[in-house]
Amino acid sequence: MKRALITKYGILTAFAILCILCTPNPKQKNVRSDSQFSGKEGEVKLIVLDPGHFHASLLLKDTIRQVNDTVFVYAPHGEELEQFLQTIKTYNSRKNSPTAWVLNVYDEADYLEKMISDKKGNVVILAGNNKNKTEYIYRSIASKLNVLSDKPMAINRQGFELLEKTYQKADSNDVYLYDMMTERYDILNIIEKELIQNKELFGELQQGTPDNPAISMESVHHFYKEVSGVPTIRPAWYYDIEQQGEGIADVTTHLIDLVNWKCFPEEAIDYKHDINLLSATHWPTKISLDEFTKSTRLEKFPNFLIKYVKDSLLHVYANGTIHYQVKGMNTAIKVQWDFQAPEGGGDTFGSVIKGTKAVLKTRQDKQQNYVKQLYIQKTDEVSNKEFEKNLQKTIEKIRLTYPFVSLSQPLPDGSVLINIPLEKREGHEEHFKYVAKQFFEYLVNRNMPDWEISNTLAKYYITTKAVEIAKEEN
Predict the structure, then answer these.
(1) More exposed terminus of the chain, fewer Cβ within 10 Å: N or C?
(2) What is the CB neighbour count within 10 angstroms for residue 243?
(3) Which stretches in the chain have pLDDT values below 50?
(4) In 3D, which of 56, 144, 146 has the Cα closest to residue 101?
């Protein structure tokens, strides 16, 4: 009788353990026993769809072990496709660490339908005309293809509504959609996030006011620039806000993502409850025909741009501001596009993030020789002694992972430079491979967190709603 009792309880225990093991992990949604991704070499088969932006080629700048050498390209025949193919050829033929991409190209008019019917790959790469991008994303997801997309994934309210529908379709089709947020891999942003999350040093994030926000970020970009040492030829549609999107629907995606990622890490932000849009403005960058020709190699403005031409200048609504609250915290975002950077300069970024104990500032102007630098300064709430003690303690902890980080002597205004040597900083072009690797890890582990989706939707709600507000107030 005793042996039977033990056996009975042994069976029950085994059954209980089995139930626990079989219970799905809440962080691993849609786990599939037949998952096609295991992390093995070459199992990610890329499809590059209509690569009209140079970011498409940057994803192929380096060899990634998990990515198959054969890449399927579907695009309309034309200069944009040729520019993409030439860039990949350059990567394949370079002396140092050449790639070995084999491009299988289809360039007929029915390229989208052909891609969907062929379904030769399992991950679609999107970086191009934003007018079509949201539709491309939806069609790919509906065809049960994973998508890694360049920003912006939506440029207007209709696009946002389709994007929300796309995420629902991705969930039911058990595929992933991911936004290329490269700025998360900038070492200054990584270090600043560490500092913000140290409550002894930074304190709590201030609430701020609409006129004196707790978080402010500003980004300056340029239509004419060089990438990989070669002048970037912009397609004419890049100057059309109906195809490229306004500035506040484009670059601001990075800024809003940094706000969420740094100040509310791994917190889900629901745009219906956590976002309050206060105001938005926009104004044009005025481009001469000579500048347009230098950037596009076109001798005249095409017909679809004529409606934006006033007094012989092309008016491009590439600049703007957005004021909003996220979880009650007042935030200000500004984007500006000039034609060309000043001598020795480039794209720039600036920010101020205010804590109750310390304020973090990023500057990248002439005073810093256009090199992005991170500073920290105490607030009146803490003494010099307490601030110095907590700062030194925090930096020592950071140095366990990033031993090259150090502190400068305080400047006359009391701010301290967080010194990150230039040789330890990778450029924007290098960040794309890290985005891709993170996405591929999600594909293997089936564990993309819910906050990635909710925060992406919150981001595009802000940008697309801001465009509507700016147009109403203009």
Answers:
(1) N
(2) 19
(3) 1-34
(4) 56
Q: What pLDDT sits at residue 366?
A: 84
Each residue's pLDDT tens digit, 66-121: 999 999 999 999 989 999 999 999 999 999 999 999 999 999 999 999 999 999 99
Instruction: List 338's β-bridge partners, or say none.
Output: 222
As assigned by CATH, the class of the 46-179 domain is alpha beta
Q: Identify the pLDDT of residue 228.
A: 62
CA distance 307 to 304: 7
Q: What is the DSSP pairing of strand 177-179 with strand 146-149?
A: parallel
Domain segments of the chain: what residues?
46-179, 184-428+469-473
Q: Phi then psi for 417, rounded to 5 degrees?
A: -80, 125
Separation of alpha carbons 384 and 381, rounded Å: 10
pLDDT tens figures, 222-233? 999 876 667 778
CATH topology of domain 184-428+469-473: Dihydrodipicolinate Reductase; domain 2 (3.30.360)
- Structure tokens that stand for 91 in this block: 């990567």
Select from 79, 83, 78 the least CA-distant residue to 58: 83
DSSP states along 124-180: EEE-S-HHHHHHHHHHHHHTT-EEEEPSPS-SSHHHHHHHHHHHHHHHHHT--EEE-
pTM: 0.90
- Look up residue 209 and give its amino acid: T
- Owner of token pair 């007018």: 131
Are 136 and 126 spatial neighbours (Cβ–Cβ below 8 Å)? Answer: yes
DSSP, collapsed to helix, strand or coil, labels residue 274 as helix
Instruction: Count the residues in the chain.
Output: 474
